[in-house]
Amino acid sequence: MVILTSATSSANAFLYTGSRYLFALAQNKQAPKFLLRCSKTGVPYWAVLCTASISLITFLSVGSGGAATAFTWFQNLTTIASLFTWCSICVAYIKFHSALAAQGVDRNTLVFKSRFQPYTAWISLGFFVMIILFNGFDVFVGENHSHWDVTSFLTAYIGIPIFFLLYGFWKIFKRTKWIPSADADIYTGKAALDAEDGQWPDQKPRNIWEKIWFWIA
Predict the structure, then answer these.
(1) Contact 136, 156 (CB under 8 A)
(2) Which residues contact 129 (CB under 8 A, 6 or more apart)?
Protein backbone atom coordinates (compact mmCIF):
# COMPACT_ATOMS: atom_id res chain seq x y z
CA MET A 1 0.00 0.00 0.00
CA VAL A 2 2.85 2.37 0.85
CA ILE A 3 4.56 1.66 -2.49
CA LEU A 4 1.32 2.14 -4.42
CA THR A 5 0.61 5.43 -2.64
CA SER A 6 4.15 6.69 -3.26
CA ALA A 7 4.04 5.71 -6.94
CA THR A 8 0.67 7.42 -7.42
CA SER A 9 1.87 10.56 -5.68
CA SER A 10 5.05 10.67 -7.77
CA ALA A 11 3.12 10.10 -11.02
CA ASN A 12 0.69 12.87 -10.13
CA ALA A 13 3.52 15.30 -9.37
CA PHE A 14 5.37 14.57 -12.62
CA LEU A 15 2.15 14.73 -14.64
CA TYR A 16 1.56 18.20 -13.20
CA THR A 17 5.09 19.50 -13.79
CA GLY A 18 5.42 17.91 -17.24
CA SER A 19 2.16 19.39 -18.49
CA ARG A 20 3.09 22.83 -17.15
CA TYR A 21 6.44 22.63 -18.90
CA LEU A 22 4.64 21.99 -22.19
CA PHE A 23 2.25 24.84 -21.45
CA ALA A 24 5.17 27.19 -20.75
CA LEU A 25 6.90 26.12 -23.97
CA ALA A 26 3.72 26.89 -25.88
CA GLN A 27 3.57 30.32 -24.24
CA ASN A 28 7.13 30.95 -25.45
CA LYS A 29 6.12 29.79 -28.95
CA GLN A 30 8.41 26.78 -28.65
CA ALA A 31 5.58 24.24 -28.77
CA PRO A 32 2.31 23.95 -30.75
CA LYS A 33 -0.41 26.50 -29.95
CA PHE A 34 -3.05 23.89 -29.14
CA LEU A 35 -1.17 23.18 -25.90
CA LEU A 36 -2.33 26.60 -24.67
CA ARG A 37 -5.97 25.52 -24.51
CA CYS A 38 -7.28 25.39 -20.97
CA SER A 39 -10.47 24.36 -19.24
CA LYS A 40 -12.67 26.84 -17.38
CA THR A 41 -10.71 26.08 -14.22
CA GLY A 42 -7.39 26.82 -15.92
CA VAL A 43 -6.20 23.26 -16.52
CA PRO A 44 -4.17 22.94 -19.77
CA TYR A 45 -5.93 19.74 -20.77
CA TRP A 46 -4.09 19.18 -24.04
CA ALA A 47 -0.74 19.53 -22.29
CA VAL A 48 -1.93 17.08 -19.63
CA LEU A 49 -3.06 14.57 -22.27
CA CYS A 50 0.23 14.81 -24.17
CA THR A 51 2.21 14.32 -20.98
CA ALA A 52 0.04 11.39 -19.92
CA SER A 53 0.36 9.73 -23.34
CA ILE A 54 3.86 8.51 -22.47
CA SER A 55 2.18 6.14 -20.01
CA LEU A 56 0.96 4.12 -23.01
CA ILE A 57 4.38 2.47 -22.92
CA THR A 58 3.03 0.47 -19.97
CA PHE A 59 1.09 -1.66 -22.48
CA LEU A 60 4.43 -3.21 -23.39
CA SER A 61 3.99 -5.23 -20.21
CA VAL A 62 1.34 -7.37 -21.92
CA GLY A 63 3.87 -8.48 -24.55
CA SER A 64 6.37 -11.30 -24.40
CA GLY A 65 8.82 -9.22 -22.36
CA GLY A 66 6.34 -8.55 -19.60
CA ALA A 67 6.59 -5.73 -17.09
CA ALA A 68 10.40 -5.80 -17.27
CA THR A 69 10.30 -4.53 -20.87
CA ALA A 70 8.04 -1.60 -20.00
CA PHE A 71 10.21 -0.73 -17.00
CA THR A 72 13.37 -0.84 -19.14
CA TRP A 73 11.86 1.55 -21.69
CA PHE A 74 10.80 3.99 -18.97
CA GLN A 75 14.13 3.72 -17.21
CA ASN A 76 16.23 4.38 -20.29
CA LEU A 77 14.05 7.13 -21.73
CA THR A 78 13.98 9.08 -18.46
CA THR A 79 17.69 8.49 -17.83
CA ILE A 80 18.76 9.74 -21.26
CA ALA A 81 16.39 12.72 -21.07
CA SER A 82 17.80 13.65 -17.66
CA LEU A 83 21.39 13.32 -18.89
CA PHE A 84 20.69 15.51 -21.93
CA THR A 85 19.16 18.07 -19.58
CA TRP A 86 22.37 18.17 -17.54
CA CYS A 87 24.42 18.34 -20.75
CA SER A 88 22.36 21.36 -21.79
CA ILE A 89 22.95 22.99 -18.40
CA CYS A 90 26.70 22.48 -18.76
CA VAL A 91 26.71 23.88 -22.31
CA ALA A 92 24.61 26.87 -21.18
CA TYR A 93 27.04 27.63 -18.36
CA ILE A 94 30.09 27.26 -20.61
CA LYS A 95 28.49 29.70 -23.03
CA PHE A 96 27.59 32.05 -20.15
CA HIS A 97 31.17 31.94 -18.86
CA SER A 98 32.43 32.70 -22.36
CA ALA A 99 29.99 35.62 -22.66
CA LEU A 100 31.23 37.09 -19.38
CA ALA A 101 34.80 37.01 -20.63
CA ALA A 102 33.90 38.37 -24.08
CA GLN A 103 31.95 41.29 -22.58
CA GLY A 104 34.53 42.10 -19.92
CA VAL A 105 32.42 41.16 -16.89
CA ASP A 106 34.41 40.19 -13.80
CA ARG A 107 33.08 36.96 -12.25
CA ASN A 108 33.87 38.39 -8.81
CA THR A 109 30.98 40.82 -9.29
CA LEU A 110 28.50 37.94 -9.48
CA VAL A 111 26.38 37.15 -6.45
CA PHE A 112 26.79 33.42 -6.97
CA LYS A 113 29.83 31.79 -8.52
CA SER A 114 31.33 28.32 -8.34
CA ARG A 115 34.98 27.41 -8.15
CA PHE A 116 37.23 25.99 -10.85
CA GLN A 117 35.06 27.14 -13.74
CA PRO A 118 34.73 26.57 -16.64
CA TYR A 119 36.85 23.44 -16.17
CA THR A 120 34.36 21.65 -13.93
CA ALA A 121 31.57 22.37 -16.42
CA TRP A 122 33.64 20.80 -19.22
CA ILE A 123 34.52 17.80 -17.05
CA SER A 124 30.87 17.32 -16.07
CA LEU A 125 29.80 17.58 -19.71
CA GLY A 126 32.36 14.93 -20.64
CA PHE A 127 31.11 12.58 -17.94
CA PHE A 128 27.47 13.00 -18.99
CA VAL A 129 28.30 12.36 -22.66
CA MET A 130 30.30 9.28 -21.68
CA ILE A 131 27.37 7.90 -19.67
CA ILE A 132 25.00 8.52 -22.60
CA LEU A 133 27.29 6.73 -25.04
CA PHE A 134 27.97 3.76 -22.76
CA ASN A 135 24.45 3.48 -21.38
CA GLY A 136 23.78 0.34 -23.42
CA PHE A 137 27.31 -0.94 -23.92
CA ASP A 138 26.36 -4.45 -22.83
CA VAL A 139 24.63 -5.10 -26.17
CA PHE A 140 27.99 -4.80 -27.94
CA VAL A 141 29.97 -7.21 -25.75
CA GLY A 142 30.16 -10.97 -25.78
CA GLU A 143 31.69 -13.37 -28.26
CA ASN A 144 30.37 -12.67 -31.77
CA HIS A 145 28.08 -10.03 -30.23
CA SER A 146 26.17 -12.75 -28.41
CA HIS A 147 24.51 -10.13 -26.19
CA TRP A 148 23.11 -8.19 -29.14
CA ASP A 149 19.41 -7.42 -28.81
CA VAL A 150 17.53 -4.91 -30.94
CA THR A 151 15.08 -4.00 -28.18
CA SER A 152 17.87 -3.39 -25.67
CA PHE A 153 19.74 -1.26 -28.21
CA LEU A 154 16.69 0.87 -28.99
CA THR A 155 15.74 1.41 -25.36
CA ALA A 156 19.31 2.48 -24.55
CA TYR A 157 19.94 4.82 -27.47
CA ILE A 158 16.63 5.96 -28.97
CA GLY A 159 16.75 9.09 -26.82
CA ILE A 160 19.85 10.34 -28.68
CA PRO A 161 18.26 10.72 -32.15
CA ILE A 162 15.08 12.07 -30.57
CA PHE A 163 17.04 14.87 -28.89
CA PHE A 164 19.02 15.84 -31.99
CA LEU A 165 16.02 15.57 -34.31
CA LEU A 166 14.04 17.96 -32.11
CA TYR A 167 17.02 20.30 -31.84
CA GLY A 168 17.67 20.19 -35.59
CA PHE A 169 13.99 20.69 -36.41
CA TRP A 170 13.84 23.77 -34.22
CA LYS A 171 17.02 25.27 -35.70
CA ILE A 172 15.78 24.69 -39.26
CA PHE A 173 12.12 25.58 -38.68
CA LYS A 174 12.83 28.78 -36.74
CA ARG A 175 16.12 29.51 -38.52
CA THR A 176 17.77 30.42 -35.25
CA LYS A 177 21.49 31.14 -35.14
CA TRP A 178 24.22 30.43 -32.64
CA ILE A 179 24.76 33.79 -30.91
CA PRO A 180 28.39 34.93 -30.51
CA SER A 181 29.56 35.32 -26.91
CA ALA A 182 30.11 39.05 -27.36
CA ASP A 183 26.45 39.52 -28.39
CA ALA A 184 24.82 37.20 -25.84
CA ASP A 185 22.20 38.79 -23.58
CA ILE A 186 23.39 38.27 -20.01
CA TYR A 187 21.54 41.18 -18.40
CA THR A 188 17.83 40.52 -18.96
CA GLY A 189 16.24 39.80 -15.58
CA LYS A 190 19.45 40.57 -13.67
CA ALA A 191 18.05 43.62 -11.87
CA ALA A 192 15.13 41.66 -10.38
CA LEU A 193 17.44 38.89 -9.18
CA ASP A 194 19.89 41.37 -7.68
CA ALA A 195 17.05 43.07 -5.80
CA GLU A 196 15.85 39.74 -4.45
CA ASP A 197 19.33 38.77 -3.37
CA GLY A 198 19.59 41.90 -1.23
CA GLN A 199 16.87 40.52 1.04
CA TRP A 200 19.15 37.70 2.22
CA PRO A 201 22.17 38.86 4.25
CA ASP A 202 25.39 36.87 3.98
CA GLN A 203 25.89 34.27 6.68
CA LYS A 204 29.18 34.32 8.53
CA PRO A 205 30.73 30.99 9.58
CA ARG A 206 30.58 30.48 13.34
CA ASN A 207 33.13 27.70 13.62
CA ILE A 208 35.73 25.76 11.68
CA TRP A 209 33.17 23.24 10.41
CA GLU A 210 30.97 25.95 8.92
CA LYS A 211 34.05 27.53 7.32
CA ILE A 212 34.84 24.23 5.63
CA TRP A 213 31.22 23.75 4.55
CA PHE A 214 30.89 27.31 3.22
CA TRP A 215 34.12 26.81 1.25
CA ILE A 216 32.77 23.60 -0.28
CA ALA A 217 29.25 24.89 -0.96
Answers:
(1) yes
(2) 87
131-186 pLDDT tens trace: 988 887 877 776 655 667 777 788 788 888 988 998 888 888 888 888 888 888 88
**Cα-based torsion angle of the residue sequence 40, 43, 44, 49 in order, rounded to the nearest 10 degrees:** -120
Tens of pLDDT, residues 54-94:
878 777 667 666 667 677 777 778 888 889 999 999 999 99
Task: Return the domain boundaries, the chain.
Answer: 1-62, 65-195
CA distance 122 to 1: 44
- pTM of the entire predicted model: 0.72
- For residue 20, CA distances in Å to 32, 131, 182 come to 14, 29, 33
Eight-class DSSP state of 30: S
Contact yes or no for 131/49 (Cβ under 8 A): no
